[in-house]
TrEMBL record:
This is GMP synthase-like glutamine amidotransferase. InterPro entries: ChyE-like, Class_I_gatase-like, GATASE. It comes from Lentzea atacamensis. Residues 45-185 form the Glutamine amidotransferase domain. It comes from the Bacteria. The keyword DNA-binding does not apply. The keyword Signal does not apply. GO terms for cellular component: cytosol. GO terms for molecular function: transferase activity. Pfam families: GATase. Keywords: Glutamine amidotransferase, Transferase.
Amino acid sequence: MTAPRLLVLQPSQSDPLAKLGDWLEADGIELHLVSLQDEPAPQNLDGYQGVVCLGGEMGALDDVQHPWLADARRLLSNAVAQQLPTLAICLGAQLLAAATGGQVRKGPQGPEVGVLLVAKRDGAGNDPLFADLPWTPDVLQFHSDEVHVLPPGAEHLAASPKYPNQAFRVGTSAYGLQFHIETTPEIVLNWAAKDPESAACARSHHFDLDFLAEAHRDFEEVWQPFVTRFAKLVRGELAPAGCSGTQLPLV
């Protein structure tokens, strides 16, 4: 059987697949990485069984400086229309929201940075990816913009006290996560060095290597099983939201 193939859109070299790539490949998923700053995005999603869109330091609507953002939004919109399993992280989540009728803006309460908790919303209890998560999982936050208004019909899945739209699902299987689950301690320390103004919004010990290493062990315990469920969704072994029963594999 041919391995399912995911299109991975990477807006910035500063936010690589890292752990997320390791987890997906361990679950038998083939990854086609497109560095949007360096190469053109595909014209369509033919031959892909899902999409991942990573984060970056730019804004979701900064098309003047980064014209390829329009391609990312187009592909995310197409993924929703085609009901392809999609996982969009931080900037990716903002692009997903903007592509499907939501609104993104600069966060009025300033940057949200550090190892913090999010809380599941009621809708998460019936979601195939979120139902088995702890009610208040640890995540890594490092963003200044927010999804201000969710897309029409989106399911709200997780919130934080500072910015409520932390996770959402558009359609049956396109997920936006405002927070990060893919990082390593070294990636986070690099972000802090590049953006000390935002990093200063976190408690200082959140950028201690030992603290970050322990936090990432906690992340892996919670979020690797989440990614395994996403891989099952890609393979057609897990029914999307609103469906029941097990589907036949899509490949």
